[in-house]
Amino acid sequence: MSLFHTLRTVFQNLSDDHFKILRIIERNLKKYEIVPLEVIERESKLDEQSIEKLVRKLNFYKLIWSPKGREKGCLLNYNGLDLLALKNLVKKNIIESIGKPLGVGKEADVYEALSPKGEKLAVKFFRIGRTSFRSYGKKRPTLYSIHSYLYASINAAEKEFEALKILHPRGIDVPEPIARERHIVVTKIFRGVEIPSAQYIKNPVKVLAKILDNVIRSYEAGLVHSDLSVYNILVTPSEDIIIIDWPQWVKKDHPMAKMYLERDLMNLFNYFKRRWNIKIIPRKYQSFLNEVLREIFNTS
Predict the structure, then answer these.
(1) What pLDDT score does 272 carry?
(2) Could you give the number of structural domains in the chain?
(3) pLDDT tens across 35-54, in order?
């Protein structure tokens, strides 16, 4: 059963009061790691017995975690956040159904979806805080400095959507943004595979040139990706590219922007040199590299 159908089945068995409890827990994400039952009682204006009954059902459907013991409270999980976000996306007529997964990464899952008009979409669920990714907050303190992984995911989605709204209208090869709801970013569908998985690249110099075009135009638009590598650049059989995964971007006047830009480019140059023995950067990009960066590659 698909994610959408599973959550729709759960949705049909919940009342408005269940959603009220979920929203109260979500509202308090920044303040509490585990939201106390007395806070839920105060904000919901429901009696303790009713709250306990509602919480039991939410816990049964694995939308929250309600620990047993001295600390009585509730912790929203990704299932609960998914349900709240998808409920609003359906209500706003953004999506009608979700289908097969397009990709599963360290920090996000991407699913294929359909709009009410039958248009194909990509729906990205941020999942900061997975077991293999618990140190992420330490590595990215400016983005994930808060204790709640769920709120960190909401923050990441907000930042990525902002970047796409800036870049796509300028013709930069990024997914076309449609909507954001909490930790979910919806874009038009995009195809391609990560560069390391693409066996059909015949002209790597051409692909590198397209990437550099986009990096330069992104910089001119005021943004540095700051986490760019061949693993978040998709390439099609016709060797068109699309740059994904933008939650860590910084403005070009950020004090670390040039260092991040240098690191992004070095990741690319080193890979293209290692895989295809490309040692010379196309001449048209030399002035940009000389102006913005230190001497990082042989541009002679």
Answers:
(1) 96
(2) 3
(3) 999 999 999 999 999 999 99
Same domain for 154 and 215? no
CA distances from 96 to 93, 101, 154 (A): 7, 16, 22
Are residues 182 and 198 both part of a single domain?
A: no
Distance CA 180, CA 98 (A): 15
Tally DSSP H helices, then E strands, for the chain.
Answer: 10, 13
Domain of residue 10, CATH code: 1.10.10.10
Check whether residue 9 and residue 29 sit in a common domain: yes
- Give yes or no: 227 in active site: yes
Q: Would residue 81 count as lying in a domain?
A: no
Domain identity same for 198 and 184: no
The series of mean pLDDT values per 10 residues for the chain, 300 residues long, is: 70 93 92 89 94 94 80 87 95 93 89 96 91 42 54 94 98 98 97 94 95 96 97 96 97 93 93 93 80 52
Q: Could you tell me the residue range of the domain that residue 60 belongs to?
A: 3-76
Q: Is residue 9 part of a domain?
A: yes
Angle of the 149-167 helix axis to the 78-91 helix axis, nearest 10:
40
To which residue do tokens 């989605």 refer? 157
Options 227, 240, 253, 264, the catalytic residue: 227
Contact 184, 113 (CB under 8 A): no
